[in-house]
Design a protein that fits this description.
Length: 466
Amino acid sequence: MSWSRRLMFVLSLDGLLDGRLGWPGSLVARYGVTVLAVALATLARVWLNPWISSAQFITFFPAVLIATLLAGTAPGLLSVALSAAASWFVVGAANLPGYNASALFLFVPVAIMDVAAISGLLAAYSGSRTALARVGELNASLSRSEARFRDVVEAAPDAMIIADRNQRIVLVNAEAERLFRYGRPELLGQPLTRLMPHRFHDFHGARVADFDGAQGPRRMGDGADLFGLRRDGTEFPVETNLSVLPGDGDDLICSVVRDLTFRKETQERQTLLIRELNHRVKNTLASVQSIAHHTFKSTGDPAAFSEALEARLIALSQSHDVLTRNDWAGASVADIVAEQLSPYDHGARPPYTLEGPAMTLGPNRAVTLGMALGELATNAAKFGALAGTGTVHVAWEKHREGAETWLRLTWRERGGPPVTPPARRGFGTRLIERSLAGGLRGSAKLEFGPEGVTCVMDFPLLAGEA
């Protein structure tokens, strides 16, 4: 601080009074200052007497003021007594010209009033400083509370919109900006109805008018579907709760808005999955019934029937496993083939190889292809390449048949026991052919060569599968 600013501070009221009341010096020091001030005033009065003989207390009043300011009320009163004594015994006893004994009786009450005035000033100043400090603490506390409130509002996972009783927006949080896609300045001062479709304006106004907040928060639109309105005009489902923020005659209404888009989509998806599950269960039961019926017709031995039926049910279950991992949205050809061959993968290297582009089939068609491949895998494990040290190579590719895209899948066994064509066509062969013809609208060609079984499946791809 420069010397000029320091001097201005010292001469100001703050500079003159700051720290004077309750001076930190000891009691002896405070009364010592008082005695010193009166002694100096006495010497000054004696020295100045030839020039100001008629103003006999001119130096004592400053001594009283200084003692009161520096040392407090009690030392100030002591300075009055000491000044009167010094005036009587020192100045008066000297019989100096112009001395007036009656003026002494006026000096004492006037000086006491000065002490009282200065003490009152100091007390008022101290009280004002205390009050100002308290106001500062309250303002700081209010600022911290406001900052915490804003932090809570900004960190809320739902959109928070605070409006006055006229339904004018006074505060929004970051989630409200993101949800409705408005900038904060664009919303402040705007009517709350700006964030809802026009068809809800009257309903909202009636609900707010009926809401006094006495019963706590209220959920808007119980039993009804409410929608919010984004800046671009798109609507989205919401739920909202109203609550009152009390004020001094100026209550605010806080609306908490939650986006229900994901919840609605999840509910719709669950409903669709339940319907799909019901349909799948019926189809599965029909498939099990058909498999059991035809297996029984083609096998007379109960043990053979049990083994064949179990193998086919396992193939059906594996097809369902693949679809379940994909939420029944379909399955890739690679996953369908790998799932049917996985039970025979017991060594360091799998006894099969897969080759083909990435592509996905719909749920029904994935089950159909899985059943056909399961039949091939079961036969290979009993009589073919998977029964010994052979391998199975499965390859698939797309090709054009007129305006349609088809999938050709080739199953080729090599390295297994010698193969001879069967004497008659069994249920497994018919299952493969019927699956391709009925479920996939294609065809299957089986060849029983000495080096191993080869099966070529051809079927058209539907939209979204090619």
